[in-house]
Write a structure and sequence with these properties.
The chain is mostly helical and about 80 residues long. The protein has one domain (about 1-75). It contains two helices and no strands. The protein has helices spanning about 1-45, 55-75. The longest helix has about 45 residues, at about 1-45. It starts with a helix and ends in a 5-residue tail after the last helix. InterPro entries: BofA.
Length: about 80
C-alpha cells in the first residue's frame, strides 16, 4: 500500500515538473516566433540587412518583441547587426 502511494506521489511530481517545463518552452517559442516575424517585417519595410544569427535568435527568444525592437533600433542606427 505504501509503495503505491509513493509511486502515485512521484508521478504527480513528475507531471507537475513536465507541465512547468513545457509551459516555459511554449512561451519561449511564441516569443521567438513573434520576434523573428517582427525582424522579417522590419527587414522588408525598412530595408535593413539584419542577419539571423544565433545571437539574434537568442535575443528574440528571451526578450521577445522588445528584444526584436532593440535589434531593429540598433541596426537602424548602424550600431550593431
Amino acid at each position: 500500500m505504501v509503495m503505491e502511494f509513493v509511486v502515485v506521489l512521484v508521478a504527480i511530481i513528475i507531471a507537475l515538473l513536465l507541465y512547468k517545463v513545457l509551459k516555459t518552452v511554449k512561451n519561449m517559442v511564441v516569443n521567438t516566433v513573434l520576434g523573428v516575424v517582427l525582424l522579417l517585417i522590419a527587414n522588408f519595410a525598412l530595408g535593413l540587412n539584419i542577419a539571423f544569427s544565433w545571437v539574434v535568435i537568442l535575443v528574440c527568444a528571451f526578450a521577445g518583441v522588445v528584444g526584436a525592437l532593440l535589434i531593429v533600433l540598433l541596426a537602424y542606427l548602424g550600431i550593431f547587426f
